[in-house]
Hints:
Distance between the termini: 45 Å
Shape: globular
Largest sheet: 7 strands, parallel
Helix content: 25-40%
Strand order of the largest sheet: 3-2-1-4-5-7-11
Radius of gyration: 20 Å
Amino acid sequence: MSYLILGGCGFIGRNLVSHLLDNELAETIVVIDKIPPAMAWLSAKHKTAFEDSKVTFKSINLLSRMNIDKIKELGVTFDYCVNLAAETKLGLSKEIYEERVTKLAQNCALFAKDQQVKLYVELSSAQVYGSSGKTSKEDSKTNPKYDFESCKLKAEEEVAKVAGLNHVILRAGMVYGPGDRLGYITSQLVIASIYSHLGETMKLIWNKNMYVNTVHVEDLCHAVTHLIKDGIPGETYNVVDMGDTILDGICVHVGNIFDIKYEYISSFTSMLASISLKDVAEDVNEKHLSPWSEMCSKAGISNTPLSPFIYSSQLETLNIRACNHKLLATGFQFKRPGVTEENIRDVLEDCVKIGIFPKTNVK
C-alpha cells in the first residue's frame, strides 16, 4: 500500500511515518511538508524512519494548488492520503487561518480526488464543539470558540463537498506524546520547570475540573490506519482516549515530575483576571521568559523550539468533552487509554534527548 502524508514532518506526521513502518502497513510513503526533516527537530527514532528506503520526502508549500500538482512528478500512485497540514500557531488572524487551514484542506482534498485515492483522511479537532463541557457526539451541535477551530470546521465542510472523494474526518482531542513541541502538555512542562527553578508555587486561574480531552499520538496514528481499514467513508469520528481527562489530572503528574506545588486561584479572582486576559498574559510572559532563557543558557542550549510564551486565548477556559463511542464501535482499542505520569515523562525525555529542554530539577 502507498501513503501520501501531507504535513508529514509535523508532530503527528512523524509519528505516523514511524507507525506505518513499525507495523509494516505501507510499501511506499511519500511525505510532503514545507519544512524539511533536517529542520524539524526530529528525534533519533524519527530520523531513522525518514531515512528508510520506503520513505520519500518532497518540500512543497501546500497553499498553492499548482505546487501540490508537483507531487505528480514523483510518479507514485497513492492508495491513501492523510492531511495533517494546517497552521497551528496561536494568535494569528482569521484571514491567515482561512488560507492555511480551510483553503489548504480544500486544495489537498481536490488533489486526492484527482489522484483517485481509495480514502482521504482529514484531521480536525474536538474543539469544534466549543467549551460547554457537555458530552459531544459526532452529530452534536458545533460551536467553535476561536478562529482556528472555526476554520477547521469549515475545512471539514469543504472536504465533504468534493464529489466522489471517499473520506473520513477525525476530530482529535488534545494530542500529546514524543515529538510534541507546541502542545499543551509540553507547554506545561516548560512552565513547571521554570517554577521549580524559581522555587515558587505554580498558580493557575482555570477551574481544576475543566475537561481537556486527550489522545496519545500513538493512538491517534493507530486510529488513522484503523479507520482506513474499518471506518465508513463519509463519516466523522471523535478520537479521544478513555481518561475523560480534567486539568487537575494533568497538573498532578506535571507537579510530581518537577516536585512543585500548584494552586488554583479562587473563582472570584479568576473572574477579575478574565476581564483583561491580555494584561495577565503579558505579566506571565514577563515572569517566565527570562528564567527560561537563563535555564537554557546554563544547559548549553542555544536554540530550541520550546517556549513558555503564552497567548491570552490560552488563559481562557476550553472545557471540551467529546464522546468516543462511535470509534470504539468499529473495534478500536486504545493502547494508552489515559494520561499517566509515565506518558508525560516520555514527552519530557524526548525533548531532553535531542537537546531542546534543560534537564534540571526533574524529580
